[in-house]
């Protein structure tokens, strides 16, 4: 029995020796290959050619003009702003002038500030939408909307009160004889409509002479660029 065990041990020892020799042989071969690979000079391949990158064009402000003028949500946006000019207001009609006087306390003009309404106005007074800025020798200067408008007396005269021309005043031959005109009854002497400032107008057909005193007022007739101007003023 002991002989068999001894033989088995010898066989196993022989197997271990063979395995050890084989491992040693493999190790030496691997070391040899490693030393050979380390000793071998490998030639490096040539480097690839270097190409210069394409640089972007320089930034120009004009290139972003569309960005400044337009947006994705408002394509019609642009820097050309259209400013609508406000239409000028029409100048209102100027008042009519019926005379310029000076009674000792300053020059005033008799103007109409409404239909069939005449009043004396001094520089600085409001006449409708205008302001009477100045009274000159042959013209009036009005102020409206921070602008001044010089107007001559002839421009402001009531055309309806002017006498017609000789051509227009030539009477035409009527088809039938005109009826006899009714006699004009003289008006009662005395002050008429109140003109303000203690003054009163003269009644039509009032034939009383200048200087007549009625109801504490004296009749005064003066010359103006438009003819004779009649008024009644308080007796001082």
Structure description:
- There is one protein chain.
- This protein has 236 residues and is of the alpha+beta class.
- The protein contains three helices and twelve strands.
- The chain has helices spanning 2-39, 65-69, 153-156, and strands at residues 97-102, 107-114, 117-121, 126-127, 130-135, 139-144, 147-152, 191-196, 199-202, 213-214, 217-224, 227-234.
- The strands form three sheets. A five-stranded antiparallel sheet has the order 8-9-12-11-10, with no helix packed on it. The protein has a four-stranded antiparallel sheet with strand order 4-5-6-7.
- Strand 6 and strand 7 form a beta hairpin.
- The chain is rod-shaped and about 190 Å long.
Q: Which short descriptors sum up this protein?
A:
236 residues, alpha+beta, SH3 type barrels, five-stranded antiparallel beta sheet, four-stranded antiparallel beta sheet, 12 strands, rod-shaped
- CATH hierarchy class name of one domain: Mainly Beta
Tell me the major beta sheet.
5 strands, antiparallel
CATH architecture of one domain: Roll
Low-confidence stretches: 162-175
Structural class: alpha+beta
Shape: rod-shaped
Return the CATH topology of one domain.
SH3 type barrels
Order of secondary-structure elements: HHEEEEEEEHEEEEE
> Gap between N and C termini, in Å?
182 Å
Question: Count of DSSP E strands?
Answer: 12
| Helix proportion range | 10-25%
User: What proportion of the residues form beta strands (DSSP E)?
Assistant: 25-35%
Cα-atom radius of gyration: 62 Å
